[in-house]
């Protein structure tokens, strides 16, 4: 089954390109893999631990930009920002079987792009993306800030740099785990009834943080109750992502709220 977050990630990526002309298409997309499908066994660099974080983990409360909050209606947003520079409707199929249509409206305010999704017959704010330094996201973060401000603002383990995470088949190095012990790709095997909270440094196709031309700092959050009692990708969840350049500077910020979908069983 094609996972819904992959659909939305493609959609919002196109929106960011449309809104700001980002040169994201030049980013690496290939995974770093071993030969013959063998498990990755290259020795890793040992990093020193950092000070214990007292910051809170990412949650739904972080789905804000300026005075906007997730699930605001179009009228509420327009009352704050005024009419968008451009807007259009975008419908997409949400499953591999292409039986369910996701109805969306996209608003562009120059460097800030917003997506409204139809939930229970009403369009509400479900995503925001910016490449502009004037848009302030949760915890005071903006484009142009240092990546260290993310690590100070959001919780991370003291030894996160020594927590490498890999692809499911253990053949690709994906990045570092800021906190948490698994990603949403493992939900079918983990079968948890608890919150799912994790943060990662995504190498964006590189083999290490040192060799990455760009990378992404991402946080994900699920909370019960879940449709089946067990967390799944069809449940509602939230993500925030920060694009980082090779100088450690934030170049784009985007967040998403994914409404729950009916399980395809």
TrEMBL record:
Alphabetized, the UniProt keywords read: Signal
Q: Which first-to-last residue range defines the signal peptide?
A: 1-19
Superkingdom of source: Bacteria
Q: Does the keyword Signal apply?
A: yes
> What protein does this entry describe?
Lipoprotein
């Amino acid at each position: 089954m094609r996972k819904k977050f992959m659909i939305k990630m493609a959609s919002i990526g196109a929106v960011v390109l449309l809104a700001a002309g980002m040169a994201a298409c030049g980013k690496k997309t290939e995974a770093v893999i071993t030969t013959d499908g063998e498990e990755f066994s290259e020795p890793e660099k040992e990093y020193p631990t950092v000070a214990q974080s007292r910051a809170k983990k990412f949650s739904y409360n972080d789905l804000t930009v300026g005075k906007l909050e997730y699930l605001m209606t179009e009228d509420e947003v327009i009352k704050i920002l005024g009419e968008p520079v451009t807007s259009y409707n975008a419908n997409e199929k949400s499953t591999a079987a292409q039986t369910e249509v996701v109805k969306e409206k996209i608003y562009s305010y120059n460097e800030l792009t917003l997506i409204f999704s139809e939930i229970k017959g009403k369009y509400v704010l479900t995503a925001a993306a910016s490449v502009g330094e004037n848009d302030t996201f949760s915890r005071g973060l903006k484009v142009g800030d240092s990546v260290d401000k993310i690590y100070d603002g959001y919780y991370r383990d003291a030894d996160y740099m020594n927590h490498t995470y890999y692809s499911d088949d253990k053949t690709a190095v994906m990045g570092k785990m800021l906190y948490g012990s698994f990603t949403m790709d493992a939900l079918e095997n983990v079968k948890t009834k608890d919150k799912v909270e994790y943060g990662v440094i995504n190498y964006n196709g590189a083999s290490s943080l040192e060799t990455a031309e760009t990378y992404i700092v991402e946080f994900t959050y699920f909370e019960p109750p879940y449709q089946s009692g067990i967390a799944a990708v069809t449940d509602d969840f939230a993500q925030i992502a920060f694009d980082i350049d090779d100088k450690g500077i934030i170049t784009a910020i985007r967040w998403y709220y994914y409404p729950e979908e009916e399980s395809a069983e």
